[in-house]
Amino acid sequence: MPHAGKTHTTDHFRAPPAARPAGAATLVDRSARGEQLRSLRHLSIQGAAAIAQGAQLTQMFGALAAPPVQLVKTANKTGIKYAESEAEARRLMTDYAKKNDIAVSATILQTAIELAMRKDLGIDEGERTILLVRQEADEAERRQKRKDDYEPHYLHLLNLLSDDLAESALKAAFARFVANPFDRWMTLGPDATQDEVDDAMSEWKRLKGKRAGCDFWGFNRQDKAAKGKGNVGDTLDTRTVQANFMCSFGGHEINVHVNISD
Q1: Is the dihedral of CA 37, 43, 47, 50 positive or negative?
Q2: 164 and 138, same structural domain?
Q3: What per-residue confidence (pLDDT) applies to 224?
């Protein structure tokens, strides 16, 4: 029976939690760990992509900030292209010579390099300097060929002459033919008298038809001033009475003038 004047409370006791089946804690732990790994993997992939994107942006903007050095420049006012450094000029000139199979000396190459670096002349002028070597070599070959082809004729014809003036005219004419057959006019000195010219011209004209590919003719006396030919080319030199010892080798005409003193 309860005691009078006291209140009695009933204590409630919580039952202890039911025991987990064996292995349940292990399954929960593994599931949580797997979720964490998936999150980390996702973050890693995002991080790698961000790093790659950052590197790409750095490369792009870095290239914009630091453009490559141009070794060949163009002068603003003239438009002439020139090499900015001696090393680049040397490479350009050496490559040009090799491409065109031109053998140049160290002196010519250095000249071309210096020209290629000049803003007022540039790379084109350097290349022309190298090309000139080829042109001179080609012309030397042509001169040698003219000499080889016609020297036997010339020596034979020279042996047929006995007059000093005629011999001098033939030697001068052949030398000009070998050196430059397109520069056909020349004046032989010293002055000669009309009698000396007449004797020489007589022998000169007898050479006609003596050798194939060679021809001889001339004029004993011409008053150049009277014919309106008093000036020597574009010079201030003047001429009056002259003889013309004319010949041709291989179709190239040479005119040797001799001033007449009387």
Answers
A1: positive
A2: no
A3: 76
